[in-house]
Amino acid sequence: MNVLPILNLPATHEKVEQAATKLGDLLNENPLYQIYKHSILDLEKDPQVRDLSMQIQTKRNAAYGGKGNPELSAELQRLNLELEALPAIRAYRAAEKDARHLLSAVNVLLSESLKVDFAANAKRGCGCGG
Amino acid sequence: MNPNELPQNIQNAARALTDALLADSQAKAYQSAVQIFEDDPQAVALEKRFMDLYAELIARQQKGEILSQQDMAPFYTLRNEYYAHPLVVARNDALGAFKPLLAEASEQISIQIGMDFTELARIE
After folding, report:
1. Cβ of residue B13 closer than 8 Å to a chain A Cβ
2. Beta carbons of B19 and A19 less than 8 Å apart
3. Secondary structure of A1-48 in the HEC alphabet?
4. What is the pLDDT along chain B (124 residues), one digit of tens a residue?
5. pTM
6. Which A residues in the span 62-121 are in contact with B, Cβ-Cβ below 8 Å?
7. Do the Cβ atoms of B14 and A104 come within 8 Å?
8. Domains (range + CATH), chain A
9. Interface confidence (ipTM) of the complex
């Protein structure tokens, strides 16, 4: 039987794919990660977040035309503070922090065994040496 | 979070992934290049000097000092020496060849979690 070379992945690559899928599944099922994903959905549904975000965007667009307008800058700062104080945003920030701790701990584990920072070197198109 | 505090199933899955990655020929070549580098005291000392000088210059800049050409000249010389060292070149080349497999693995994790793993998992 002829197999197209591109579909004929080396066995190690298949094992990597399977192991990465399993790890991703477990991370996705983790309660901390679930809370983070739900917090994003909550943000999208929250009318106060939507309203304030739109106000901020409108002010930003206005500020873009009138550089250095102190009144606009002060208003933007006030709106941003108001946004950050909303319960949905606070919940999202806390959940994001927990999710980042979870995933960075996994990255430390992978990186120690591989002798390379996994996340930093796994970006496609990164020609940054390492 | 300390990696030891991760749930056992996640620790096991992470170890299974590193085992799968380390079985690859590019990974073996990279591990070997790292070992050869670490076994060479001169190369290790050169890397330490380079990293120490880099950290010192960054610290001075962060304190508000404007670095002159004279300040920077030894850094550029050392940087050229470091990046031209055969064992550094070999290690970087081996890592470059290993990176596509790391990217495949991280992309697979990202698909499962619905976010960019490399972005969320940066070591703090």
Report:
1. yes
2. yes
3. CCCCHHHCCCHHHHHHHHHHHHHHHHHHHCHHHHHHHHHHHHHHHCHH
4. 888 899 999 999 999 999 999 999 999 999 999 999 999 999 999 999 999 999 999 999 999 999 899 989 999 999 999 999 999 999 999 999 999 999 999 999 999 999 999 999 986 6
5. 0.83
6. 99-121
7. no
8. 30-112 (1.20.1500.10)
9. 0.87
